[in-house]
């Protein structure tokens, strides 16, 4: 796989924007955006498994295996938080001070979203280690 400088710069920009939203944004914005991202992740995994080929398919199968259940559980937790909040809780989210509980929620969400990447990389490594070798002689159908 070859990567151009443009692709690397785009990936670095996306990673820095993600880190900025995850840890630098106000609590309300971060919780909403990370919750939406968790809700969309299973669709991204399924699309990657269906539409990719070769090593990329192995990567997406690994991410789906490692990330589907944690992502759905995190979405359920976010929905529970959304419906259990009272007005005082929303004003606390608008406050810029870092409460330990909300910081732990952010770290938990980021970990849930990064764990599937490790699973995808592991799956690609397993594919490259155990990929069947191509036969030197094509099968002609003749038996000996």
UniProtKB/TrEMBL annotation:
Keywords: Membrane, Transmembrane, Transmembrane helix. This is Uncharacterized protein. It comes from Aeoliella straminimaris. The chain crosses the membrane at residues 29-51, 58-83, 103-125. The keyword Membrane applies. The lineage of its organism: Bacteria, Pseudomonadati, Planctomycetota, Planctomycetia, Pirellulales. It comes from the Bacteria.
């Amino acid at each position: 796989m070859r990567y151009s400088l443009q692709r690397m710069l785009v990936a670095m920009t996306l990673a820095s924007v993600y880190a900025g939203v995850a840890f630098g944004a106000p609590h309300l914005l971060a919780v909403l955006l990370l919750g939406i991202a968790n809700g969309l992740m299973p669709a991204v995994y399924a699309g990657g498994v269906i539409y990719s080929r070769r090593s990329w398919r192995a990567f997406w199968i690994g991410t789906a295996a490692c990330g589907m259940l944690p992502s759905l559980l995190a979405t359920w937790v976010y929905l529970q938080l959304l419906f259990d909040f009272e007005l005082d809780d929303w004003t606390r989210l608008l406050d810029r001070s870092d409460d330990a509980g909300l910081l732990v929620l952010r770290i938990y969400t980021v970990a849930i979203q990064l764990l599937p990447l490790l699973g995808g990389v592991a799956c690609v490594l397993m594919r490259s280690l155990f990929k069947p070798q191509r036969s030197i002689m094509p099968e002609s159908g003749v038996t000996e």
